[in-house]
Amino acid sequence: MEDLAEFVVNFASKLGATYADIRIEEHYDENIEVMNGVPEKHVIIRKKGAGIRVLADGAWGFQSTTDLTREGLKKATEIAFKVAKASSKHLKEPVKLAPIKVAKDHVKVKVEKDIEDMSAEEKIGCCIEWDKTMKVSEEVKRTSTNFSCVKVNKLFASSEGALIRFENHVLWVFINSFAKRNDLIQSYSWIEGGSGGFELLEKVNMHKLAEKVGKKSVELLDAEAAPKMEKVYAVMESDYVALLVHEIVGHPSEADRVLEREAAWAGTTWWKGLEGQKIGSDLLTVYDDPTVEGTLGFYLYDDEGTPARRKVLIENGVLKERMHSRETAAIFGVEPNAGMRAITYEFIPLIRMSNTFIAKGDWKRDEIIEETKRGVYVIGMKQPSIDDKRYNWTISAQEGYLIENGELTKHLRDVALMAIAPEFFKSIDAVGDDLEIRSVPGCGKGTPMQGLYVGNGGPTIRGIVNVLGV
Amino acid sequence: MEIKVNLEERTEKAIELGSKLGIDEVEAYAVWNKVFTVRMANNIILESKGVLDIGMGIRVVHREGIGFSATADLSDEGIRKALENALNSAKNRKLPFKYSLPEPTTPKKVEGTFDPKVANLPEDEAVELAYKMVEAALEYDKKVRDNSGELDIIVYHVHVRNSKGVNVSDHGTKIEASLNTIAKSGVEESEGFKAKGFRMLKNFNPEDIGVKAAELAVKSLGGEKIEPAEYTVILSPSTSTTIATYPVFLVSPYFMKTYSPLFEGKLGETVAHEKFTVLEDPTWPGLWGSCSIDDEGVATRRIPVIENGVLKNYVYDSFYASMEGKQSTGSGFRTGFVVGVGIFPGKNYVLEPLPYAVNPVLLPGDWKRDEVLQETKEGVLLERFHYTRLTNPTRGDFTSVLRFGVFKIKNGEIVGAYKKSRLVDNLLNILKNVDAIADDLDIGGSWGDYAAAPTIRISKARIIPAE
User: Fold this and answer.
1) Share of chain B above pLDDT 90, in %
2) Rounded distance between C-alpha atoms, residue A247 and residue A393, angstroms
3) Is the pLDDT of residue B259 over 80?
4) In chain B, how long is the greatest CA-to-CA distance?
């Protein structure tokens, strides 16, 4: 593959491109879906192709192809070059790329139990077993288990001389239980996963987790509907915090959003121009860190070949850093920080989260609850709806508890919280020491949409919100 | 960019190789997709990018088991490996009900789904067409400062063949055009937006998209904060299409199982206002999801989902139809979300079919849009939904950010704009509270998903401020 990659970047240079890169990727993806104990889906996808990106006359052009012959790659390069030239007629400033340390490297995720080495019987059998385990009572009317694995062997090469091979293996499983009593339906779901082999799921004891998810869906039938509450404390556990930080810190930290380049569909960000300013409480520190092994967002080089490092997005409440491409880093006058990723060779890279999480504090979870006179304790991510500037947010939870005088009292169902981001950030007054990075496999961005797997998380935190009543 | 692959011949080879392997039933779904996207922001072309995607999805039924595998390698060897993977999967995926691949049907031609002018549009001309949207918005008003958006040109060819005699082809073209405009006046800033999905080049007017986005941005300037309350709400086709799409999406037995059981077990019940009729109709000519066959090669048909307020039908592919003892409604489509795959605007060979609605149409009523406005004493007109979700899919709790295009109506006239707001209500309540349907059927939707609906009025829905 190296010779083909070298051929393409040289050919692009000969055409007149000032920069070119190529990703040649070989994919093995697998998806199993079991419902009510029946394996309804089992998909194995094998595909191989290349994505070629060129900079010509200061503009970007991109073309992907599955034809990996020299002739096929040549044709794709010519189109990428041609469309870059066409785009350059409508530029104000030519694209500049901030310099990076050009790397030659080979990164391979540690895998004990490779998904391709397992029999279909074993994989499907595990999913059926987890699915059936959720059926803890007759009131569990429906269960579903969705397992996914993405295995990629990727070669990145650039006209600057980069040559990086990345062998990645990520997987996750989503389990969901619906319980029903009379007209009341309640659901409970959970996601586990990371980068590595099937051993990741063996270590978390999926059987026990599936049993818990089934039981929770039934217990919620006895829970009280969440009351409407205004300006109350919410104590949020890690899985809920994962979705929260994803939506209201991760996305608005993408430099392309800050530059209003994602305005049409995804939106922009309310904290444009506030770098260096205090936007949250002293207890709020947020990182985006692709170097955390074992997480869904793990990588050591992004899809521009930029070496990865921890980014400090917010430090003690002060807005510090954005996630950047080489292009946006040049615009902001900062060093690139490896934010560019594409889901497959078919797509051009975009600025994406890796593992975005709130840094741990020194509170114990129980202390936070004990120190809360009145509020709610929310567990588990459910559905978000966030405004285009990531300012006004609503996120529902799997379950909640009422907190009265420092104790968890009533179990609550149908809990959704709403707040305004800057007010909420300032209200954070307790951060736990129980940091977890959770798996968030369905982050959407771009046109055509690229659904990417990332890690998000944090410890237990406390802040002020409104609870939407039922 | 062209790559010559004979999809018909390759599917024939798949059936032949499957037979040699002794597989009971084989289905081959071969796809050739080309997607070209021009992306704009900050009044410039940000990037132009093309995807060429060719591959085959192979489904096998063998000894009461079912298996599936997909490959981008259409050589004999690539197809043989995919068949073996699918067979191996089938041996471990036994079904508790009898399933057999679809029988041949007689598809009828659906007009207005393929335009050679779109299929042969040179990339550099597409770039120029895209930029016309920006130019038109900038020329509309000096207050227009910034534009961003996309133009997608999509061409697909498919061939479906199975060992029971299905042997059909389809092809199509699509144009997705969107523009988001930011207008500024002093310290005031607002946005406008227009997005539409077309099948034929003659229907795509880039200047019209630009002007509509700019007009909305300028009109949205100077809004006041809305008071949290229940309002009479008028939805233009740009937002009513979302209301049309939700119930049609939720009558898939697959999504009833995995996402929301809101309409489960409710066939024959009144779930919407008596004038509300929404169809899943891929046979409707020239719409975003119009097509003559589904992704199993079964003829599509018109399916009334809600008729005069009563829930009438669910949609079925062959698999879910067998599971529930029904017939396929020609609604087996390979869409949805699997990671490792984008939400691809062309045809997707890497997924198994699911029961899925692709062409929701809310039938027009007998009101004129102007009458709906004039007959509204006090209310709110909504032109843009953003980040719409069922926050509680089991109950139908529904929310959407009203990013801009929120207009105040008093005594039948638009008298001003509101700032960013949020609709917080329940989908079932919204459907039941529809009290006027206009005759101005139009295309609307968001992010690669379009439907057709007219202006509608909801007698009451809760709106709160979002700033």
Assistant:
1) 89
2) 8
3) yes
4) 74
Judge whether B223 and B217 are in contact, CB under 8 Å: no
Tokens, residue B135: 């130019």
Residue B221 CA to residue B253 CA, distance in Å, equals 44
- Confidence at B445, pLDDT banded by 50, 70, 90: confident
Neighbours of B358 (CB within 10 A): 24
| CA angle (A336, A324, A78) in 5-degree steps | 85
For the CA atoms of chain A, what is the radius of gyration?
23
Q: Which two tokens stand for residue A40?
A: 């309804």
How do residues B21-34 score in pLDDT, each as one tens digit?
999 999 999 999 99
Domain ranges of chain B: 7-219, 229-465
pLDDT per residue over B378-414, tens digit each?
999 999 999 898 988 889 999 999 999 999 999 999 9
Contact between residue A341 and residue A331 where contact means Cβ atoms under 8 Å apart: no
For residues A327-331, give the mean pLDDT.
Answer: 98
The string of DSSP codes covering B209-225 is HHHHHHHHHHHTTTPBP
What are the DSSP calls for A147-208, one per residue? EEEEEEEEEEEETTS-EEEEEEEEEEEEEEEEEEETTEEEEEEEEEEEES-THHHHHTTHHH
Cβ distance B340 to A86 less than 8 Å, yes or no, reads no
Which of these, A146, A137, A113, lies nearest to A30 by C-alpha position? A146
The B residues from 105 to 124 touching A (CB cutoff 8 Å) are 123-124
Count of all residues that appear for chain A in the document: 470
Residue B133: strand, helix, or coil: helix
Dihedral in degrees, nearest 10, Cα atoms A118, A120, A122, A125: 150
Q: Considering Cα of A241, then A126, then B320, then B339, what sign does the dihedral take?
A: positive
How far apart are the CA of B366 and the nearest CA of chain A, in angstroms?
Answer: 33
Please give the ipTM for the structure prediction.
0.90
What DSSP string runs through A208-260?
Answer: HHHHHHHHHHHHGGGSEEPPPEEEEEEEE-HHHHHHHHIIIIIGGGBHHHHTT
CATH class for the domain made up of B7-219: alpha beta
For residue A147 the two structure tokens come to 């397992």
**Which residues have a Cβ under 8 Å from the Cβ of A327 and sit 6 or more positions away?**
A95, A96, A97, A98
For chains A and B, what is the number of CB pairs under 8 angstroms? 306
B52/A265 Cβ within 8 A: no
Could you say which of A185, A264, A444 has the minimum Cβ distance to residue B261? A185
Nearest CA in chain B to A265: B447
Please list the residues that pair with A152 across neighbouring strands: A27, A168
- Check CB contact of B422 with chain A, cutoff 8 Å: yes
* Paired tokens of B249: 């999406």
Task: List the domain boundaries for chain A.
Answer: 2-222, 225-299+311-322+342-468
Strand partners for B413? B410
Query: B290 CB contacts (<8 Å, ≥6 apart)?
Result: B110, B112, B113, B199, B282, B283, B284, B359
Q: Chain B residue closest to A399 (CA)?
A: B392
Q: Which amino acid is at A351?
A: I
How far is residue B176 from each of residues B145, B208, B375, measured CA to CA in Å? 23, 14, 34
A231–chain B nearest CA distance, Å: 15
Task: Measure the CA–CA gap between A94 and A178, rounded to whole angstroms.
Answer: 54
Scan residues 268-327 of B and list those with Cβ closer than 8 Å to A: 319
Cβ neighbours for A24, distance < 8 A, ≥ 6 positions apart: A1, A4, A5, A48, A49, A50, A68, A154, A155, A345
* One CATH from 3.30.2290.10, 3.40.50.720, 3.40.50.970, 3.40.50.300 for A2-222: 3.30.2290.10
User: What SS3 class is residue B87?
Assistant: helix
Check: CB of residue A52 under 8 Å from CB of residue A24. Answer: no
| Among A38, A66, A84, beta carbon nearest to B96 | A38
Structure-token pair, residue A11: 């050919």
Residue owning tokens 């799921």: A201
